[in-house]
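Hi R.,

Quick one: here's the ESAT-6-like protein sequence you asked about.
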Amino acid sequence: MIVASGGGGKGTAGTANIEYDSVKTMEGFSSVQEQVDKFADSTNNIASKFNRIFSELSGKSIDSYQEVANFYIDSAKLAEEYIRILVDIVQQADQEIADAEKKSRNMFDDMG
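And here's the predicted structure, written out as tokens:
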């Protein structure tokens, strides 16, 4: 998608050149999704190992350590959730842009 053209020369003040490449965006976010999946797997593995260790130990210091570990795991899962939400939003925006481009193209085709 290209919106407006031109540079900053005379007579073009206020114009913008915006380019959007859906394929590159979706390829990039596909990579992000793969990394989020790996991150989620890693977080789950860490949680399992912590739980196994904590089940074998007891005491005040272990309880404190477990609280910190649980906070880390909860934070990691929250980060994962927000990244997945961001990916969904970008995919929706990409679809909206594609639909708008198609509608615009059809309007120009109907005029000509």
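The two ends are 20 Å apart (CA to CA).

Cheers,
M.
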